[in-house]
């Protein structure tokens, strides 16, 4: 995004010959030190003098007239000639642009302006990994065959025929097509990511995390790990089902019904899990050797299925199925499909009769349905040419314990059914419906990551992963889709819906179709599920190890360690324990939807990663795989999300909740990595778009929030002098605005580069400790004065610029070694005013609370003298959102003059606060005009003498100290001889010893203006120096003294006092007096925040 900077050249400070005195002449100006945060010198050129010596307001010494500012009064007339009243003389510079509160309350208006925004900062960290050498494999061995083995697994052999019989050929085709399409689209996205650079060990996790960032990568990586682990449990359960149902039913430990079978699964499953974990622990090379054997069994089984289908066209296998009416009966090898038969002219009952009648006798009491319906025997495998496909096109869903029935078979129904005989029928063990079948089937297509999980072992991962994975998906998709059609065309519907082959003598249903023998499928599927389980137990620990070694999830770091050869021992142990949880569930149909959620979430984010990278078009996005498009990735993402909710909406929500919790945990604890991922790029694009939008139009008052530039002062070791300034900043951040922490180092950038880096590190460390989120900006400038000016002008970007400057009051401005250091502060005030920015000055900042302190009681007092945008209202509200100030009450004081109706002012102010939705106590303080006290004259006299001394003497440090002491001693001696000694005050640097009579003060207090003028003459005659005082300074000092007394009376014990900050004088020769006015105004208060608004409304009564 192009950014335009305008650099305006200015004359060096001291270039103009104004009235700064000899110390400010060109070539002799002392180097300005950064005594306080505000004490940095601001690099503002001096005002240009006119021919008569008067300084033209608005000029800066370069001869260019400046635009009139509403904040610095350009009227050079003597304010004392036109301003009536003395109480608010200190704020008379503000009156042209900022109204008094009393006049504001009479006219509430609408508000405008200023920007908003929050930018989160993340640090970079470059982590280097040692590459572990491993055997290198090609596309066929390393990707194609492992994917083939993992995809063609337990669901194909144990559940696909049942899905076809239950959902019908059409709906089964839709299920398989949706799932295969999702995996194919995911594989395309994965291929684009895998070919966009080197993919080391970690596979899919590495691709997701480096594309979407550590938060998404960690969350999805853990979900994928859990899915792979539960897949191992599913394969082991499939192995036990094949063993106990079809290979050795007599091996069952527990005898009985369904519950006994579940216990058998748990016992045998735990034993096989331990055996497989031991094999994986011994070495992956043994798993790889066994994998080839298991894969050969899978391929042989697939060929046996196709060969059996071809054979059924001309010689179908003989697997008779016995029906009672239209109900399918459980049949054993010795089970004749008749009720009775004739033998030696005698009627002999069969086992079937005995089951339904309870006795072999002909006169026994039999089941009503058994008596009314005939027994029929049909062929279970009628063959591909039989036309049974038409019967199997449509779905037949049912409830749990629903008996499997042949739809077109005649049957005589009965009124009352007995559940006692259900064990002789083939029935459904679970309720069946479309979405449930999707959840059970999807794990059969989830092996697509098998190749990418071995990316560290591949010779050329960028070539092998796309080619091998897509070819494996196309191969398996053809197998699945063709098998659905062939199963529906060859096998009777009641046999398809018989999950465990009870109607065909307990044979595996898919095995009845195989050639040359059902045992080919039984043995092949047994070894296939064993191999898939071993592959899962091999891949899952390595995935967990990759996550742990990245260090993004702190509590998983222990699982990054292993044996000396890199084998993940501890990760294998955790994987086995999680896998045991799946085995204890003991139901293949219950475990399958769980791992479907985890895999679908992983695939969803793979597609999202590819779509984000493609749409962002980042320069680094240059995949070698060209057959991708963002629309395909978006379609794959949408399909995965739809499948998640189709499978189980509550499982989907739980999986998302788990991923979300992991995401937030990584974001909070471990996400300190910068991998150049797509989410970072997305954030950059979003930030750029938002910045451009922010600059399109002026922001509304409702969107205003303090965007703070904090000016910090550093010591010689680049350590922050006032860390509590950052504490106070964080306490203000309920406004959710921008924070820029800046500081200035005097010198040349090439020489100070190391110090600037160290200063930035120290400030960032302190920001982290204070939980201040924002940016740090260090400026190296020839003078601190120029540096602060540059910060105020250029900090921020576009619409995300600061609107408020926060700085500390220069406590030692009177006693500093450099008499010009206070100019830094005053020039900073002028800079912020010219920039139309608000200014916050924290006095006694070291007594402000830290973020760990709590105020259990107390007040935040606001002294609202002039209205300058509402900052005084907004700041206490923001502070009270923080736990430090939460229990403090807010009080608002405003000042009423003699001609103001204080009662009405209070009512108006209460109504104003009500509309602002701010709760605060309101009090109107009446300040009537009275005589200027002798104390005020004394303070003004000392102030002007100090100013004169600093401006007219260019002496060394020791000489300046001697002159200051001589003037002080002379003034003290004059006061001791020329005044009536009825009252004596102890002399201090800020409070001069003086003498005055109480009766004189009381008699003078209520006189009119003419009497006041005569009294002034009397006063001047008593102390001749007073007659030479600048009357404007006297009035300002009078305001400061009087207002300070009122504030002390009401707010001396307040936890914080917020006060309007008067503007600086229009002529620079009075800057040192301005500092004295502010010092007197805030004297005796513990914590003070001087607030000077930026001239824009920041708070509104409207919604």
Automatic annotation (TrEMBL):
SLC12A transporter C-terminal domain segment(s): 840-1103
Catalyzed reaction equations: K(+)(in) + chloride(in) = K(+)(out) + chloride(out)
Keywords assigned: Cell membrane, Chloride, Glycoprotein, Ion transport, Membrane, Phosphoprotein, Potassium, Potassium transport, Symport, Transmembrane, Transmembrane helix, Transport
Annotated transmembrane regions: 137-161, 173-199, 219-244, 265-284, 290-309, 430-450, 470-491, 570-588, 594-616, 628-652
Subcellular location: Cell membrane
One cellular component (GO) term of this entry: synapse
Pfam family, one: SLC12
Any GO BP: potassium ion homeostasis
Entry similarity comment: Belongs to the SLC12A transporter family. K/Cl co-transporter subfamily.
Protein name: Solute carrier family 12 member 7
Native source organism of the sequence: Podarcis muralis
GN (gene name): SLC12A7
């Amino acid at each position: 995004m192009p950014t335009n900077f305008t650099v305006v050249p200015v004359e060096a400070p001291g270039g103009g010959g104004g009235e700064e005195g000899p110390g400010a002449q060109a070539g002799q100006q002392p180097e300005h030190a950064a005594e306080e945060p505000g004490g940095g010198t601001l690099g503002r050129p001096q005002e240009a003098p006119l021919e008569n010596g008067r300084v033209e307001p608005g000029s800066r010494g370069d001869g260019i007239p400046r635009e009139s500012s509403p904040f610095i009064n350009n009227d050079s007339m003597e304010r004392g000639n036109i301003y009536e009243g003395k109480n608010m003389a200190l704020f008379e510079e503000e009156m042209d642009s900022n109204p008094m509160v009393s006049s504001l309350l009479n006219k509430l208006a609408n508000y405008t302006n200023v920007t908003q925004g929050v930018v989160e900062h993340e640090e970079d960290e470059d982590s280097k990994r040692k590459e572990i050498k491993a055997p290198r494999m090609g596309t066929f061995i390393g990707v194609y065959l492992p994917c083939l083995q993992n995809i063609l697994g337990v669901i194909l052999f144990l559940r696909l025929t049942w899905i076809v019989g239950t959902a019908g050929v059409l709906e089964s085709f839709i299920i398989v097509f949706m799932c295969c399409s999702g995996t194919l689209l995911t594989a395309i996205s994965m291929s684009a990511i895998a070919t966009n650079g080197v993919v080391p060990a970690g596979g899919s996790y590495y691709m997701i995390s480096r594309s979407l960032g550590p938060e998404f990568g960690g969350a999805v990586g853990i979900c994928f790990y859990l899915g792979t682990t539960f897949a191992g449990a599913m394969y082991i359960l499939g192995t036990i089902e094949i063993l106990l149902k079809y290979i050795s039913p007599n091996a069952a430990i527990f005898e009985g019904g369904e519950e006994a079978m579940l216990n058998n699964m748990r016992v045998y499953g735990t034993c096989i899990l331990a055996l497989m974990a031991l094999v994986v622990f011994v070495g992956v090379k043994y798993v790889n050797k066994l994998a080839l054997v298991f894969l050969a069994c899978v391929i042989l089984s697939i060929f046996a299925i196709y060969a059996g289908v071809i054979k059924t066209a001309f010689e179908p296998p003989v697997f008779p199925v016995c029906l009672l009416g239209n109900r399918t009966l459980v049949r054993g090898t010795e089970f004749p499909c008749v009720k009775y038969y004739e033998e030696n002219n005698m009627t002999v009952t069969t086992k079937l009769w005995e089951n339904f009648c309870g006795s072999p006798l002909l006169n026994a009491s039999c089941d009503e349905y058994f008596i009314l319906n005939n027994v029929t025997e049909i062929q279970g495998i009628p063959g591909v040419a039989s036309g049974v496909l038409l019967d199997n096109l449509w779905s037949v869903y049912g409830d749990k314990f629903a008996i499997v029935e042949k739809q077109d078979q005649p049957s005589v129904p009965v009124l009352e059914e007995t559940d006692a005989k259900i064990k002789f029928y083939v029935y459904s063990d679970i309720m069946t419906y479309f979405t449930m079948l999707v959840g059970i089937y999807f794990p059969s297509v989830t092996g697509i990551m098998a190749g990418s999980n071995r990316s560290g072992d591949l010779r050329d991962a960028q070539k092998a992963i796309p080619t091998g994975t897509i070819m494996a998906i196309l191969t398996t998709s053809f197998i699945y889709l063709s098998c659905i059609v062939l199963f529906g065309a060859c096998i009777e519907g009641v046999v398809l819906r018989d999950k465990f082959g009870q109607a065909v003598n307990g044979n595996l249903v898919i095995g009845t179709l195989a050639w040359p023998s059902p045992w080919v499928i039984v043995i092949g599927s047994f070894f296939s599920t064993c191999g898939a389980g071993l592959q899962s137990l091999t891949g899952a620990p390595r995935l967990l190890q990759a996550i742990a070694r990245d260090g993004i999830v702190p509590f998983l770091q222990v699982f990054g360690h292993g044996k000396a050869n890199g084998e993940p021992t501890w990760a294998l142990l955790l994987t086995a324990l999680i896998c045991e949880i799946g085995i204890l569930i003991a139901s293949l149909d219950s475990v399958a939807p769980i791992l479907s959620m985890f895999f679908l979430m992983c695939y969803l984010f793979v597609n999202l990663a590819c779509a984000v990278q493609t749409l962002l078009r980042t320069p680094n996005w240059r995949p070698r795989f060209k057959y991708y498009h963002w629309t395909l990735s978006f379609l794959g993402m949408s399909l995965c999300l739809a499948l998640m909710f189709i499978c189980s909406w509550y499982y989907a929500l739980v999986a998302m909740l788990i991923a979300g919790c992991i995401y937030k945990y990584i974001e909070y604890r471990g996400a300190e990595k910068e991998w150049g991922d797509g989410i970072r790029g997305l954030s950059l694009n979003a930030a750029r778009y938002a910045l451009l939008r922010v600059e399109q139009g002026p922001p509304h008052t409702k969107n205003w929030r303090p965007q703070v530039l904090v000016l910090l002062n550093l010591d010689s070791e680049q350590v922050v002098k006032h860390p509590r300034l950052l504490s106070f900043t964080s306490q203000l951040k309920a406004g959710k605005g921008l924070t820029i922490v800046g500081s200035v180092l005097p010198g040349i950038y090439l020489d100070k580069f190391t110090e600037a880096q160290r200063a930035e590190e120290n400030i960032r460390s302190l920001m982290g400790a204070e939980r201040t989120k924002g940016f740090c900006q260090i400026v190296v400038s020839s003078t601190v004065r120029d540096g602060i000016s540059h910060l105020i002008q250029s900090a921020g970007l576009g619409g995300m610029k600061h609107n408020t400057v926060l700085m500390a009051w220069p406590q030692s401005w009177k006693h500093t070694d450099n008499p010009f250091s206070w100019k830094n502060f005053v020039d900073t005030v002028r800079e912020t005013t010219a920039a139309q920015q608000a200014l916050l000055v924290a006095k006694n900042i070291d007594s402000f609370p830290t973020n760990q302190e709590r105020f259990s009681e107390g007040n935040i007092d606001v002294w609202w003298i002039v209205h300058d945008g509402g900052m005084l209202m907004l700041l206490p509200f923001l502070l009270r959102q923080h736990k430090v100030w939460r229990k403090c009450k807010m009080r608002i004081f405003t000042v009423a003059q003699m001609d103001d109706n204080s009662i009405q002012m209070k009512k108006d102010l209460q109504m104003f606060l009500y509309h602002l939705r701010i709760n605060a106590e309101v009090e109107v303080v009446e300040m009537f005009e009275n005589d200027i006290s002798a104390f005020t004259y004394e303070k003004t006299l000392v102030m002007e003498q100090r100013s004169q001394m600093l401006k007219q003497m260019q002496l060394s440090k020791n000489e300046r100290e001697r002159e200051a002491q001589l003037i002080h001693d002379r003034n003290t001696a004059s006061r001791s001889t020329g005044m009536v000694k009825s009252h004596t005050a102890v002399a201090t640097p800020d409070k001069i010893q003086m003498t005055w009579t109480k009766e004189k003060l009381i008699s003078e207090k209520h006189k009119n203006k003419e009497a006041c003028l005569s009294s002034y003459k009397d006063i001047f005659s008593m102390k001749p120096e007073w007659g030479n005082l600048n009357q404007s300074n006297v009035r300002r000092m009078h305001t400061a003294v009087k207002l300070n007394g009122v504030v002390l009376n009401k707010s001396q014990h307040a936890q914080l006092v917020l006060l309007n900050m008067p503007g600086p004088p229009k002529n620079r020769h009075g800057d040192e007096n301005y500092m004295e006015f502010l010092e007197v105004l805030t004297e005796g208060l513990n914590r003070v925040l001087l607030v000077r608004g930026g001239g824009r409304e920041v708070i509104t009564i409207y919604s």
